[in-house]
Amino acid sequence: MKIVDVPADGAGDQKTAESSVSHSPQGTISPLELSLLVFIAGVAAVLRFHSLAAKSFWFDEGVSVAIARLDWYNFGRILWRREANMSLYYLLLHYWLHFGGSEFFIRALSVLFAIASVPVIYLLGRRHFDSRVGLIAAALLAVNAYDVQYSQDARSYSLMVLLCSLSSLYFLKCLSESSRRNRAAYVVTSVLAVYAQFFSLLLVVAHWASLRFLVEQPVPHTRAKIRNDWRWIALLVSPAVVFIVTTGTGPLRWVQRPGLKDVWVFALHLTGNGGPLLLLACATACLAALLPVWRTARMRRVPWEFWRYRFLACWLLFPLLLTLGLSLVKPLFVPRYFIFCLPALLLLVARGVTRLRSTALIVPALLFVLILSLRGTVGYYKLDIDIQRDDWREATYYLLNHARPGDALLFHVPMGRMPYEFYHSAVGPAPVVLYPRHGDRLTLLDFVEKPNDVELERLLPQHPRAWLVLTYAETQSGLPDARTIELSKLLGNTYSTVEQHEFPGIEILLYSSKNAGVYGLLSPKRLAY
Fold it and tell me: Could you tell me the CA-to-CA distances from 15 to 6, 24, 216, 233 in Å, in that order?
């Protein structure tokens, strides 16, 4: 049976709408559409490669690179013990590092994932509505500041957006043509999305929830086949589920309970960092797009023409609302984890813009949103949107520039050594690392080592000076945490003077004895930043 689509403006014969279950776009992409899509992808590439290495690696990026550089034995151990989330990204980065190791090259992997998301969101818009919606959604994604920021981040977020978009695309394809190829692609992309970021599992749940609103398909056994696909997904992601159950919410113990202000700020960021005006424009467009939902609000199951809006609403809102609800018991809301909801938002905005019908209205409305979005992207180049970037590049170079032979080095957080190691390897000799310390090559223990203060107390007198690097060293009340107090006391018992040096997100303390000489007198030649 051929699936028919109702005209994009929602008009048409009601019987046609009621008999429509899914939408399969007809025809091939025209040369004009292809040219526009290539141009949009080119704009996305320019915005994401621009100033790609201008900002320092922050804490999480340094950890990503350190994990990817581990030997296979320690790589597997750390994934299972601590860092299973984003494991797919770490694996891809491991191979990517064989071809280059600069900040630009490492971040370029995320940029490539982001550029690939542009044609995928176009295909989603084309299948869901029409080519015009697809092109507008692709343009909005290309200039979205939130996506640009995480495209320039050596983490898995742009990979997450790509795989979640592909998962949703193949989910829709399975509804119209439940072929073995489409079903296999849906299972594979969904599973890979979960291993790219565990919160992607909420998208699969959103797929399940949305399907409950769709009328029964005339294609035999479609629902049964999709339920079988979900069983395969559940089986293949079971190791991730086991990891989550065994580790609990420990990795997220730093997350604070969100309030209404946090939700408001996240909405400002997700819509493109363009301020309340851009948020208002996007909200208005979404409301205009969702008008068909209100006409069928009392119906539990609706045909494709109306269901497609419910699907996008589930994709956008269900993961957020569920997590915010759970956060009342245990805080779990980390805004960047929900960047996979961005394609749904942009598709709704694009659909809302096209409801203006007249080109004379669509063009200025679209330009208004695009200009505000570009302004948000320019603002991101100057200041990160929602990352408290700790400047490990400047801090490391400063430390190495002022260190002397025989100095000791300690990190308040063991994994704080990871971004330091990245910049240290690009400079040269450095102080002796006493904590965490397990040899010349990094191992699992360097990430998770428990402090041995007795051993530190024995080793410290052998070094005339000691550097202590603090990061995330304060409690929620703003006071030093317990480990900072312990290390300060330990070093204070060995050394008589201390000097403080601050960098964005990092504090470096230099402890020395009175007979260690005047600080800076014997500093080596200054390094070029």
Answer: 10, 18, 15, 36
